[in-house]
């Protein structure tokens, strides 16, 4: 129970600090680099992907080996078609 409360406390304190910096930056004529740094830092943190999860646990993920097999199969298929195109004109129909 203490951990979620501590997280909420840190989140609320950080949010209050960010809002203080933004309001001071906008309203106070003497606002300086500290307020600008706090406001910019808080905005930058909002861009972080905080809801990420490990690739193995994510829904709809595909094993990396499957991608390698598909890539190699595609390359082999293209190489075979290119060799046929360059080497011969294909089967010749006879009347």
Largest sheet: none
Write down how many β-strands occur, each being a DSSP E stretch of 2 or more residues.
0
The fraction of residues in strands falls at under 5%
Mean pLDDT: 77
Describe how the helices and strands are arranged:
Blueprint: H1 2-27, H2 33-46, H3 64-87
Helix pairs in contact: 1-2
Description of the molecule:
It is a single chain. The protein is built from three helices and no strands. The protein is mainly alpha-helical and 95 residues long. The radius of gyration is 30 Å and the shape is elongated. The N and C termini lie far apart (87 Å).
In short:
This protein has helices spanning 2-27, 33-46, 64-87. The protein is mainly alpha-helical and 95 residues long.
Question: Keywords, please?
Answer:
single chain; elongated; 67% helix; 95 residues; mainly alpha
